[in-house]
Automatic annotation (TrEMBL):
It comes from Penicillium coprophilum. The keyword NADP does not apply. Belongs to the cytochrome P450 family. InterPro entries: Cyt_P450, Cyt_P450_CS, Cyt_P450_E_grp-I, Cyt_P450_sf, Cytochrome_P450_monoxygenase. Heme binds at residue 519. Signal peptide: none annotated. One of its GO terms (molecular function) is heme binding. This is Cytochrome P450 monooxygenase. Its cofactor is heme. PANTHER family: CYTOCHROME P450, P450, PUTATIVE (EUROFUNG)-RELATED. Keywords: Heme, Iron, Metal-binding, Monooxygenase, Oxidoreductase.
Length: 579
């Protein structure tokens, strides 16, 4: 009898265990292709994804491979063992339609939003568009992308930061004596200087580039350049990074590791218990509080007219004051909202733009003919600067419309795929390309594979597409599959009556997203990239480096970052005009 009861109990226990296991196995959405192997494992596609990352060093690159393997522009993967499968779409027209026209059906993705919630819980990036707070937050920062703010505040600050980078690299080129050197850290640091100076007043002597320049100026030579191998990279002494900047880098990195975590909130909680993270957060909070106090002091002195926005924080406080007046209440400046919105700018403003700029430097080093044409375009595009033997001013650069410059910038953005794709969550049960998508499903609109930098996967019948998608047909061109993977600025140039002009609708990219939740900082990013490209290419010739120093391997963090960027710099012929 005892044996019978024990066997029954054991049997029931094992059945419960088995049923539990079965319940945890990923459940596919009917009709959408998927990796059959993944459904036999509670971790779904994660092991294959990790394996791919170990082998290639690139994680999000695994998604286009899966789409091609399953031969479908819409696939599902099991990326989070605790939620519905993720839908991966590799088709520009359908993605464009979702982002621009189907905004009631698809909103800010829970997965993407959760990645930011730990660090900046009250930033609008994680809010749904229907959340009334979203509009309140957007109103606070609405001035920052106006032409007036961009031209009068952002452009000169960004220009100063990257002129300092030119000064540092002039010293490095002198000391390197023909040897290549890694450009990664310098570009990230100069970009942080730039967005810091846009966000808060920055004394140039406090910038990261300033101290580095003076350290290098004091040197007459460095050890590594005594090597007879001219390809041996030069290594320079580095000044130590102040606490504030290193905290921002630490926190940006913590955010980066959230993006690909299946459960970002939990991961952030564990990470935030680590002593170095606690310290970085404390430094950040103290710095934000001190900058806010300084801004309040600037703000309360002076008349309404004198309260001009000298930086992003001033512009935000002005908006809060205006809102308070309208709502007949006292302004509240010391809020989590203001802390998080301004810190969000610092993070979003330095990481993505610098990554894109670094890709640009790599492409231009590896495409000498394009670099030559780019410099010729600068020569004919800035005649006054040429006549006066000086580099163009911030104003001249931001107001310029030089087709080959704009085309090269757009091609760098397209080919860098700094953002591998765009996340959205289905807010209702809906349909994509004829497939039922249940409410709550996360979609990843892939921008780094088929239909963008590779040939599309098959031809999608028109009647499979939504009505609004069919109506939009032809508004944006498509790339020739034979060369969509090549770096070719000319693809963005339209020719009419023998005249060339830059045309951003000639083909697709999704790097900034689209529609009401597309990148808020897009205009600033374009402005910054333009300033960076003009200043660096005006001052330096980027000579090619050997293949071993020019790998295109990348690591997917907050952005898709190259692992290597070595530059061999010579003074540019344009710069020599002034010599
Ligand atoms: C090359 C540089 C940049 C790239 C590739 C980039 C890319 C992106 C992408 C892909 C998104 C999500 C869009 C979507 O879901 O549709 C985004 C959102 C955002 N970006 Fe950027 N970004 C860049 C520069 C900047 C800069 C310079 C700033 C600000 C200074 C900024 C601020 C933001 C903000 C605030 C959001 C959230 C918008 C929202 O939730 O509505 N970005 N960005």
């Amino acid at each position: 009898m005892t044996i019978l009861v024990a066997s029954l109990l054991l049997g029931s226990f094992l059945s419960v265990l088995y049923l539990g296991y079965r319940c945890m196995l990923p459940r596919p959405i009917l009709g959408i292709p998927y990796n059959q192997e993944a459904t036999k494992n509670v971790l779904g596609d994660i092991p294959a994804w990790i394996e791919h990352e170990k082998k290639t060093g690139e994680s999000l690159n695994w998604l286009p491979l899966q789409a091609k393997k399953l031969n479908s522009p819409i696939i599902q993967i099991f990326g989070n063992p605790l939620t519905k499968p993720w839908i991966i779409l590799s088709d520009f027209r359908e993605s464009q339609d979702i982002l621009l026209h189907r905004t009631k059906e698809f909103d800010r993705s829970d997965h993407f939003g959760n990645a930011f919630k730990g660090l900046v819980p009250d930033h609008h990036i994680s809010m749904k568009t229907t959340n009334p707070q979203f509009k309140v937050h957007r109103r606070l920062i609405q001035d920052l992308m106006t032409p007036a703010f961009l031209n009068e505040v952002s452009a000169p600050r960004i220009y100063d930061a990257f002129t300092s980078l030119v000064n540092v690299w002039t010293e490095k080129a002198r000391l390197a004596n023909g040897h290549p050197f890694s450009a990664l850290d310098d570009v990230y640091r100069a970009a942080l200087d730039a967005i810091w100076a846009v966000s808060f007043p920055l004394n140039p002597r406090d910038s990261l580039m300033y101290a580095q320049r003076w350290l290098l100026t004091s040197l007459t030579s460095i050890n590594t350049t005594s090597s007879t191998d001219i390809n041996e990279p030069a290594v320079f002494p580095e000044v130590s990074i102040p606490d504030v900047a290193s905290s921002i880098f630490t926190l940006t990195e913590s955010l980066e590791s959230m993006m690909l975590s299946p459960i970002p909130k939990l991961k952030f909680w564990f990470m935030s218990q680590l002593p170095y993270m606690r310290r970085a957060r404390a430094v950040k909070e103290a710095t934000m509080a001190s900058e806010l106090e300084k801004a309040k002091a600037r703000f309360s002195s002076g008349t309404q007219e004198e309260r001009i926005a000298r930086c992003a924080l001033d512009a935000i406080l002005r908006r809060e004051l205006a809102a308070a007046k309208q709502e007949n209440r006292e302004p509240t400046y010391n809020t989590r909202t203001i802390f998080d919105e301004i810190f969000g700018l610092l993070i979003a403003g330095h990481d993505t733009t610098s990554t894109t700029a670094i890709w640009g430097l790599k492409f231009l080093s590896d495409h000498q003919e394009i670099q030559k044409k780019f410099r010729q375009a600068l020569w004919s595009g800035f005649p006054v600067a040429i006549a006066e033997c000086r580099q163009p001013t911030a104003e001249e650069i931001s107001k310029s419309h030089i087709p080959y410059l704009d085309a090269t910038q757009e091609e760098i953005i397209r080919k860098s795929v700094t953002g591998a794709g765009i996340w959205r969550t289905a807010m209702v049960d809906t349909v994509v390309l004829g497939h039922h998508i249940p409410k709550g499903t996360n979609l990843f609109l892939l921008g780094n594979g088929p239909d963008f930098i590779e040939p599309p996967i098959g031809k999608i019948p028109e009647d499979r597409r939504s009505k609004s998608c069919q109506e939009m047909n032809g508004r944006v061109g498509s790339w020739d599959p034979a060369d969509s993977n090549l770096f070719q600025p000319e693809r963005w140039i339209a020719k009419k009556d023998g005249k060339e002009s830059f045309d951003s609708t000639l083909g697709p990219h999704l790097i900034f997203g689209l529609g009401p939740r597309g990148c808020f900082g897009r205009r600033m990013a374009y402005l910054e990239l333009k300033i960076v490209l003009v200043l660096l290419l005006w001052n330096f010739e980027l000579q090619s480096v050997p293949a071993t120093l020019s790998s295109y391997q990348a690591v997917d963090k907050l952005s898709h970052q190259p692992r290597q960027c070595y530059l061999r710099l010579l003074s540019s012929p344009l710069n020599d005009l002034g010599a």
